[in-house]
Amino acid sequence: MTTKSLTPPGPRGLPLFGVALQVRRDPLNLLLRLAREYGDVVRLPVMGQQRILLNRPDFIQQMLLIQHAKFHKSDLTKQAVGPMLGQGLLISEGEFWRRQRRFAQPAFHRSRVNEYAPAMIGVAQKHIERWRDGETRDVASEMMAIALEVAVQTLFGTALSGEAEHVGRATAFLMRYSLGRARAPFRLPRRWPTPKNKRATREFDFLDSLVYRIIEERREQRDAAQRTDLLSLLMAALDEDGTQMTPKQLRDEAMTLFIAGHETTALLLAWTWYLLAKNPNVEAALHQELRGALGGAAPSLPDLPRLPYLHAVMKETLRLYPPAYLMARTSIAPVTIGGYEFGAGSTFISSQWVTHRDARYFDEPEAYRPERWLDGLESRLPSGAYYPFGDGPRRCIGQGFAMLEAALVSACVAQRFQFRLLPGEEVVPEPLITLRPHNGIRMVLHARG
Fold first, then answer.
1. CA 129 to chain CA centroid, nearest Å
2. How many beta carbons lie within 10 A of that of residue 189, not counting itself?
3. What is the phi/psi pair of residue 443, to 5°?
4. In what order do the strands lie in the sheet with 327-331?
5. Where are the domains of the chain?
6. Side-chain-facing half-sphere of 48: CA atoms under 13 Å
7. Measured between alpha carbons, how far is 398 from 261 in angstroms, rounded to an integer?
8. What is the pLDDT of residues 125-178, one digit of tens each?
9. Beta strands 340-342 and 347-350: pairing type?
10. pLDDT tens by residue, 7-17
11. Which residue has the higher pLDDT, 306 or 104?
12. Is the pLDDT of residue 265 over 50?
């Protein structure tokens, strides 16, 4: 199959800059507009280079699954997360990535993840005991604190001593800082003592010291060999040649799972409370299901099959506000997609934010309608139309963990409280490395009777 044009259609943009300034200003709406104006394969000029936006499910599958061996994570991704995560699972490549994935996989088998359920429920219940009827809280920060404590307890077998708030602030700052540098047309060296560089150094050092401290505490524990949390498995794992992870490799994987292990779930929960507050009919339907199935009791693992609407709520939140809103890959070999031939070194992007809002696959795509998932929609969608956790061999290893935690925490919280946005509160999604609410989500808590 060939096309009449040698290159895909797309905007001309400004001389030299292309659409770089629009990407910095409002990337989400830019991607939506370009997909609607130019179609399923779009050429984006950015600072003298080309980005290829893929908007059709089968083209996205070519990048993530069918021809995945011809792609590596993009340079932008590595520049944005590399300083924080090192060569962890998120950005490592090739045989090294496969080796690290083998080490981590046992901790995410369904049977092992199910063992984490009591800890997830316990953390959520303990956290909301501090909440009071009528008070105002930043629900995004509250969900970050819950998810962080769950991640540290279940994945690392320890607890944080009052540092969750600092972790949240440090992570948000470093995401904004690193992505800003990666997108900037010109950037000062990190070693220059500007205020932002100095703060970034402090926050990097804080997170590093925290992760290294957790690792060292585990080494000193006498029962470390009997533990089954992820950190213990990584520390004890042997490769086929009898080697173990180096301290730096262990740090990189621990940091990746420390950050990614709570970020996605926390954002899924935060965006869920926001969308429920904006859609009281959906909230009422969810509460009716929870009351009928649980009767006010804390949820447990066997309860989850009896909560189909809750699962639909999670799926619909991930459709409209996917924490991972963009995938980027760079070809390492010539590749043909959509009838166009691209050379090695071409950078491709696909966006869940765009594809999940495509009217070809979702009726009323801007509407929050969890019931759309109750009649088998997911099985009817073409592969690549709905992929909140990515797809292919590099699909998020923690998908099952995140969905279990989100369901259990939601069931705990929704039975005790409902949330209402502060009057005049404007919640704006901020596309950093993940899709965060800019300035949080301030809501009034109302205790249920």
1. 27
2. 7
3. -140, 155
4. 41-46, 49-54, 347-350, 327-331, 71-73
5. 94-327+393-447
6. 2
7. 7
8. 999 999 999 999 999 999 999 999 998 888 888 877 677 778 888 888 988 888
9. unpaired
10. 899 999 888 88
11. 306
12. yes
Q: Cα separation of 6 and 8, whole Å?
A: 7
The model's pTM:
0.92
Query: What's CA 203's distance to the chain center, in Å?
Result: 21
Q: In the numeric block, which tokens belong to residue 108?
A: 């995410």
**Residue 341 β-bridge partners:** 336
Place of tokens 């956790």: 389
Tokens 């997609």, residue?
Answer: 337
Average of per-residue pLDDT across 302-308: 96
Mean pLDDT confidence for 317-324: 97
Distances (CA, A) of 244 to 26, 103, 209, 238, 241: 44, 10, 22, 5, 9
Place of tokens 């340079």: 75
Q: Among 63-72, 93-102, 143-152, 184-193, name the one with the lowest average pLDDT.
A: 184-193
User: How far are the Cα atoms of 113, 220, 225, 237, 249 from residue 232, in angstroms, in the given order?
Assistant: 15, 12, 7, 8, 14
Distance between CA atoms of residues 342 and 11, nearest Å: 18
DSSP letter (8 states) at residue 298: P
Say how far apart CA 164 and CA 144 lie, in whole Å: 8
Residue the block writes with tokens 């009351």: 291
> Are 139 and 398 contacting, i.e. CB atoms less than 8 angstroms apart?
no
Fold adopted by 94-327+393-447? Cytochrome p450 (1.10.630)
Tell me if residue 436 falls in helix, strand or coil.
Answer: strand
User: Residue 392's closest CA among 65, 57, 62, 61?
Assistant: 65
The residues, ordered by sequence, that sit 6+ positions from 122 with a Cβ below 8 Å of its Cβ are: none
Summarize pLDDT for 288-298 with one digit per residue, the tens.
999 999 999 99
